[in-house]
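<amino_acid_chain>
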Amino acid sequence: MSSTGDTTAGQSPDLAKVAIVGGGAFGTAVANIVARNGHKTMLWMRDADQVEQTCRSRENTKYLPGHRLEEAIVPTADLAEAVTDAPLVFMTVPSASFRSVCETIKPLVAPQVMLVSATKGIEADGFKLMSQILSEVLQTERVGALSGPNLAVEIAQGQYTGTVIASHDRELRQVVQAGLASETLRVYGNDDLYGVELAGALKNIYAIICGMAAAMGVGQNTSAMLITRALAEMSRFAVSMGANPFTFLGLAGVGDLMVTCSSELSRNYRLGARLGQGMSLDEALKDLGKLAEGVNTLGVVCAEAERRGVYMPLAGGLHKVVFEGAELGSTIATLMGNAQSDDVEFALPQETR
């Protein structure tokens, strides 16, 4: 939920050590930035063999090949070694294993440690976002979420981009901004933690839709309509959960949505393209070879939208295609035949809606 209040905890900590829990592409890209800024950076990977290979080659060949690790990065398969005495911890593990990893590090982190999720997913049981899991398991309010148009490969290449650190804790936002800022990465703050996280999770659904549409050869007009109506659905759903709709006009909302819905570097977009080419979900996931968070998010969000009575025709249509075997063409025809409503819903005064 959005909050204008800030909580602080004294003087900013000395970032002599920063932990990145999760050795995927994004975690590795973040680790390189932090290390380049002069901090000893622990990069935790679950697989000891991957750690050994990464230490030997100084490159994460599995998830981010072609990008040398900074010398200040220490790859490790030992969670205790990674997080103990680190005042700032980034969590970049997949949502399916997020809670279990949090349970493991619980006895290893002190109450004042700042914890930042960079995982864009939702836990089905109770509809929990990753920051909520952090708060619940580790019994702390010093949590944040990092989200935005942040394709790992482009970050590693030094392409110019921006990201958003969301937290109710002003000091946490400032520390992350200082720790990640670089010549090519600009870090913006936001206190709408729930909105920023929801935006990051929800956009994966629509990346699948846009990937499918691209595979079918739709025009630019169609793509533009899909993206803008996706933004309307995302903000409508998020507002029903208590988020600020204006968050969706920023980097974490429209910025992330645009890049994820139009880039081959997006796993969810590539998954959608495979589905649009006629593959089954299992075939597409196997061919992709990597987790696409949007599949799990789709089921969770559609169930919650139905429970809340939130109108989400694009997400609902995709659910029918992915999980119920509906034909994509007939689903699109149904969507185009739906009742026409207002273009920009949240621009209207409440009494006229």
The two ends are 23 Å apart (CA to CA). The longest strand covers residues 161-166. Residues 193-215 form the longest helix (23 residues). The chain has a mean pLDDT of 90.
